[in-house]
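note to self — DONT lose this again. spent like an hour looking for the file last time. sequence + predicted structure for the chain T wanted, 296 res
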Amino acid sequence: MIYTDFAYYPKSAAVAASGERFAPITGPYDGLQAGVTGCYDYTIPIPGSNALTKGNNIKLGAEFQISPATLKPRIFMSWTPAAFLVFDGGMTLGTGWNFMGAQGLASYNPASGEYDDLTPFKNCFYEFDLGATFQFDAAALWPGDWHHIVFMSTYRLRYSGMTNQADGHPWCWAADYNRVNGPNYYVNIILGYQMPFKLSMAGVQLELDGYYSDRQFAEQYRSVDGDFCRVNISPMLVFGLTKKDTLFVLLYFERRRGFDAEQGYVNGREQNWLEMNCSGGEWYFKRLAFRYIHKF
């Protein structure tokens, strides 16, 4: 299986204010993102014939992702003990570089207030994760081609880090700034309606991620609300092009940290904010994203 990802980012400058607000689009272009991921998994069936156990399995797999600024292999395992429940876990190791200003690996420099590039392969991103997914299709209780109201909810515990970085010191991985070593969480909730058309599903995705405590940041950075929860709400369309080809289209609206001063952002990114005070949340249109999946 191969995943091909592409995203377009418009410019949305920060709004200097307090409390919750919305930041409008202020320019046509702020960046592009692309990546290709190859995935292979081996499935071990679990015997069963009733509705809860039929099709249950254990999967062992590996992924290899490459983008213009990063290289990221991953191994994983999943267990489906019942049709509506999946447990999984994995380990990721990655490295990166600067590609036309997009920073794959970088470390915060408090003297300059900017992120300095790290040496590829000498410095690596790593992550261990454990997750549980609950999934349900109304058609299981109400059979019919037009009864597929689907719901999926995933909670994932992650331990992420960067080699050669002190605990509490901010770093950047894959242009995702202001991260620190330690445990963090990720929540993904999808509600959709499946149809027997080329447009096979329409729905909405909610994503939450953040750190469990602001104390995971060094003391000099705790004024920025280190346990701030980043929120993404994404209307989603899924097109079943062929039996082997699927296209996802998503519009991302994100809630990011807000600040009283506009210099809390550089090019629309959370950067240079580590000595500032967080002031509520700021909603903005983040990106238009596409994912094309081809199964062999």
